[in-house]
Amino acid sequence: AESLYRSLHPASAAHSAHAAQFMPGGNTRSSLWAFPFPIYMEGGHEARLTDVDGNVYIDFLGEFTSGIYGHSPDFLKDALVSATDRGVSLSSHHRLEGELAERLCQRFPSVDMVRFCNSGTEANIMAINAALTFTGREEVVVFQGAYHGSVLTFSGNNDVNVPFKTIILPYNDIEALLATFAGRADQIAAIIVEPMLGAGGCTPGTAEFLSTCRELCSDSGAVLIFDEVQTARLHFGGRQSQLGIFPDLTVVGKFFGGSLPFGCFGGRKDIMQQFDPRAVGAIAHAGTFNNNTLTMAAGIAAIDQHLTAEALDQLSARGDRLRTEINAVFERQGAPYHATGIGSIMNIHPNHGPDSKYLRQLIYLDLINSGIFVAARGLISLCFSINDDDIVTFVQKLKFFTEQRSVCWS
Ligand code: PMP
């Protein structure tokens, strides 16, 4: 698989070697690195990507859930052209920010007010700060495997972290939560939790676990923060609306900014009002691009034209179908893999064992060599441009190469 990959991608290899002279490992975004070198793309249209060697892929990664609209969609071009015509940075407020804020508050019943940032990372940092200030407490409960952004990662693997006092607990472990709150409920400012671990491997949070988080926060006065940067697309109103479990603060980003750089945190009015610049001692939260017109215009157009309840439910159904079929192939072929996830977001994992690192690399290379683009870590997220034929193609290719490899694991 590796030699075929190398022979298909000489130009990517050359770009990677060039970039490595000026950037460590040629990389500026850790999640994009892949063995033996990452692929360089020339461009994309709808659900297709073309790399610098001319190979064409069906894009099953969808920019790590952000690229839900497919590549170069017309709505985005129109929004960006009209925003650019009126001025990108106006040194001032403009009407689009209130319009986007209104749409997000209407969408999430738990969200009274929002603020904007440039990334999900920033939005999570600001949400945590809002909770620390609101409660006057210092400790934040986070979960193993959680990813709340580049400086809020809890993978246990050389993570960079901002200096909050964190208590790191196992995900979906109700006993651990109860034991922690029993000892120090009055010191905990917040629980921050993804309703499904995203970068941590698409492990859904159970309803019991998330409602325990809810109850413990309500009882202790801690702030419950749902990081729905990925899961907001699983259902209109996010995973919280699907489960009927509502946090105090919600963080979103990615596709709500039309796939442009974006982050947003919001929730209970009493917590958010700490940012009101008219208040004495208001929390300062500046940012040159927080209200840039490109993201605001793209977000409004995306929400109005694409992120409807019906479109999201259809996408989730298509994802459920793909995941079921992937698991059926693995089972039938006796391949040592399984897929987890909810709706249109999923991850292929090697089953546990000493060879799992190599099995992960192998299936990535086999998929890429078959023209199916996924993340090196096995993440798949569908965009609206993926159709039923693309799903059939994925399953056929998977069937073909897992059959070929069956001697390896039988
Ligand atoms: N939270 C979650 C759950 C995410 O998946 C991500 C990004 N993958 C982030 C936060 C960070 O968002 P950004 O990359 O925009 O900083």
Automatic annotation (TrEMBL):
Keywords: Aminotransferase, Pyridoxal phosphate, Transferase. The keyword Transferase applies. It holds the Pfam family Aminotran_3. The keyword Transferase applies. SUPFAM superfamilies: PLP-dependent transferases. It comes from the Bacteria. CDD domains: OAT_like. Its cofactor is pyridoxal 5'-phosphate. Gene3D superfamilies: Aspartate Aminotransferase, domain 1, Type I PLP-dependent aspartate aminotransferase-like (Major domain). GO terms for molecular function: pyridoxal phosphate binding; transaminase activity. Belongs to the class-III pyridoxal-phosphate-dependent aminotransferase family. This is Aminotransferase class III-fold pyridoxal phosphate-dependent enzyme.
